[in-house]
Design a protein that fits this description.
Radius of gyration: 17 Å
Strand content: under 5%
Number of strands: 0
Order of helices and strands: HHHHH
Helix content: over 70%
CATH architecture: Orthogonal Bundle
CATH superfamily: ENY2/SUS1
CATH class: Mainly Alpha
Structural class: mainly alpha
Number of helices: 5
Distance between the termini: 19 Å
Length: 89
């Protein structure tokens, strides 16, 4: 196993992955980002003559990544950094 896969395995098994994903979800929900992305997906799906999931996913993913608040990104990255620092000494 590589170092990366060992870290990924420990990240998941420790429960840290779930904790960070939950924190991200909570931040995105409280900021209104999730509702905005749901609304965007609905509008774009209704605008398609024949809904195409792959095209819709591509469009919404691009907008979604670009619209995540910078502070949310920084907080999540900091959580990941703290975890990595705690296991790599």
């Amino acid at each position: 196993m590589s170092l990366r896969s060992d870290i990924n395995k420990q990240f998941i098994e420790s429960g840290e992955y779930e904790r960070i994903v939950t924190a991200l979800h909570d931040k995105l929900k409280s900021s209104g980002w999730l509702d905005e992305m749901n609304a965007t997906a609905m509008v774009r799906a209704q605008a398609q003559e024949a809904p195409n999931f792959d095209q819709l996913l591509s469009e919404v993913t691009q907008k979604g990544i670009a619209s995540v608040d910078v502070q949310v990104k920084k907080e999540i990255i900091e959580m990941i950094k703290r975890y990595l620092e705690s296991i790599i000494k």
